[in-house]
Structure formats: C-alpha cells, structure tokens
Design goal:
about 80 residues; alpha+beta; Alpha-Beta Plaits; 3 helices; globular
C-alpha cells in the first residue's frame, strides 16, 4: 500500500502548505532505502495547537488511511 500512502501523504502535504500559510512552514517525507516500507514525516509548525488543527482539517486523509490497517506503527513527537 506504499503507492496509496504516498499519494495521500503528498496530497496532504501540498494542500497543507498551500492553505495553512505559516502554520506549516515545511513538510518533509523521508523514506529509508534499507527499509522501503518505513517513512518519517517531518513537519515544522508554529505550535502544537496548530498541528492538532491541521490534523482535523478536511484535507487530512492520513487518519482514514490508518484505519485500513496498513499502518503497523506510528508515533507523534513534538519538539
């Protein structure tokens, strides 16, 4: 389901960067050559509250993808 994941996460990235202005100033998708099913998403946001607002937006399809069972593990880390 990697192609579906990449489609969803790239759509979310593009829409977030276009519509959420300064809330999300960068959004990187890192894939590991040695482990092609593992990804790290790095988002730079102005606050934890802004990230939570982003996660509730209409274009945030990641939550729907997670409900398919295709995601075996994930973790949010706030710095």
């Amino acid at each position: 389901m990697v192609p579906e994941f990449l489609r969803i996460i790239n759509d979310d990235k593009q829409t977030a960067l276009e519509t959420e202005g300064g809330i999300i100033s960068s959004f990187d998708i890192i894939n590991y050559e040695c482990s092609p099913n593992n990804f790290t998403l790095l988002q730079t946001v102005t606050s934890k509250e802004d990230l939570l607002r982003h996660m509730k937006s209409a274009h945030y399809k990641w939550k729907d993808f997670m409900s398919t069972g295709a995601v075996l593990a994930y973790k949010h880390t706030y710095l």
